[in-house]
């Protein structure tokens, strides 16, 4: 657990080339944003009471001398945050910097170091918005850099290795974690403490990376990156307000009514089972939909998908279903879709069925 009150300081971008240059190696930019991978604890056996995002990117790279054998690495400290505090402004800044770097002929791929807590949201955002087919690989760690058997150094080496692989080109944004390579669309954090904390439920990983070898066993099917209409440059700072509510035994309509009164543009509901919703909450959401608030039905279960007109009559209620996206990824897509001008349930459902 990170120390309370971790600040949202966005550090100035420090560029430092940390490996000797070899023209045969891929040129990879590492963008550091903080997280446990950059965390430090008072002693090596402490893996829960540390402060995230306090170790600079130069130190992270210095801990992995083998990086020089797989890539020419340049590094930037984009932010130093505990990813629970990820902010929309930082998403904008990060996405724009990734696009800038990938537009350069001097960069072959980008690696982002991130906290694990919201990694799947940032990775999916970039998967939908980056405008390049060059590899973008997000990685992280479950143990702080100070820990015995810290997992960050190998995850970083593997992420840079994947970003430098020709096989990673055109696969959208990837997550390299614990030797596996996942699609940003599918991957979710599944453990609060275990080193093997990321999985792609139902679908499985795309492939693996080990000892410098990168192998993909399947490809990404849904459109991403250059094949989407979503771009952070056009979204800018105007992120539509979309919030998540949950359905559970004894739920009330207080949260939905408060959100509608606050003027939200969209609500994602983390329903039970196949996205089913407590009748009280569902009535409130139907009233919100009738007022023009976009309502997306997803599931709190953690795997599977939500079937349209299954556990609720979406056609009648004016709801949209999230398919296999969890509530937090559904929120990312809904924000982008609303920002791109998709307003009706029919148009939004088409977006969810496509991306
Ligand atoms: C964070 O998400 O920044 C802290 C937790 C972690 O990286 O594992």
From TrEMBL:
Keyword Hydrolase: yes
Active-site feature positions: 36, 116
Lyase recorded as keyword: no
InterPro entries: AsnASE_II, Asp/glu_Ase-like_sf, Asparaginase/glutaminase-like, Asparaginase/glutaminase_AS1, Asparaginase/glutaminase_AS2, Asparaginase_C, L-asparaginase_C, L-asparaginase_N
One GO molecular-function entry: asparaginase activity
Pfam families: Asparaginase (PF00710), Asparaginase_C (PF17763)
Stretches assigned to the Asparaginase/glutaminase C-terminal domain: 242-352
Keywords tagged on the record: Hydrolase
Amino acids binding substrate: 83, 116-117
Enzyme class name: hydrolase
Ranges of residues in domain L-asparaginase N-terminal: 27-220
Example GO biological process: asparagine metabolic process
EC number per UniProt: 3.5.1.1
Domain of life: Bacteria
UniProt similarity note: Belongs to the asparaginase 1 family.
Name of protein: L-asparaginase 2
UniProt source species: Paraburkholderia piptadeniae
Encoding gene (name): ansZ
């Amino acid at each position: 657990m990170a120390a309370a009150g971790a600040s949202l300081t966005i550090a100035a971008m420090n560029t430092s080339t940390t490996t000797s240059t070899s023209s045969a190696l891929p040129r990879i930019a590492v963008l550091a944003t903080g997280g446990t991978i950059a965390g430090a604890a008072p002693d090596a056996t402490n893996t829960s009471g540390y402060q995230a995002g306090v170790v600079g990117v130069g130190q992270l790279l210095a801990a992995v001398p083998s990086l020089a054998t797989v890539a020419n690495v340049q590094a930037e400290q984009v932010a130093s945050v505990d990813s629970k505090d990820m902010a929309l402004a930082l998403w904008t800044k990060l996405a724009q910097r990734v696009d800038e770097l990938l537009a350069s002929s001097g960069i072959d791929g980008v690696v982002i170091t991130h906290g694990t807590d919201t990694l799947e949201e940032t990775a999916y955002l970039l998967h939908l918005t980056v405008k390049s087919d060059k590899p973008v690989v997000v990685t992280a760690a479950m143990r702080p850099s100070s820990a015995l058997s810290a997992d960050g150094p190998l995850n970083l080496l593997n992420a840079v290795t994947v970003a430098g692989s020709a096989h990673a080109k055109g696969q959208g944004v990837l997550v390299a974690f614990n030797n596996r390579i996942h699609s940003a669309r599918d991957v979710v954090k599944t453990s609060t403490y275990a080193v093997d904390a990321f999985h792609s439920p139902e679908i499985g990983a795309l492939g693996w990376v080990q000892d410098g070898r990168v192998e993909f066993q399947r490809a990404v099917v849904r459109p991403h990156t250059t094949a989407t209409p979503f771009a952070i440059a056009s979204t800018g700072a105007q992120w539509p307000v979309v919030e998540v509510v949950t359905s559970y035994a004894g739920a009330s309509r207080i949260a939905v009514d408060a959100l509608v009164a606050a003027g939200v543009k969209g609500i994602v509901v983390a329903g039970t089972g196949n996205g089913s919703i407590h009748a009280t909450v569902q009535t409130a959401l139907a009233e919100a939909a009738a007022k023009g608030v976009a309502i997306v039905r997803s599931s709190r279960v953690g795997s599977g998908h939500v079937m349209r007109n299954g556990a609720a009559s979406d056609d009648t209620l004016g709801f949209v279903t999230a398919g296999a996206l969890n509530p937090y990824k559904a929120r990312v897509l809904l924000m982008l879709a609303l920002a791109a001008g998709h307003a009706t349930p029919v148009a939004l459902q088409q977006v969810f069925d496509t991306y």
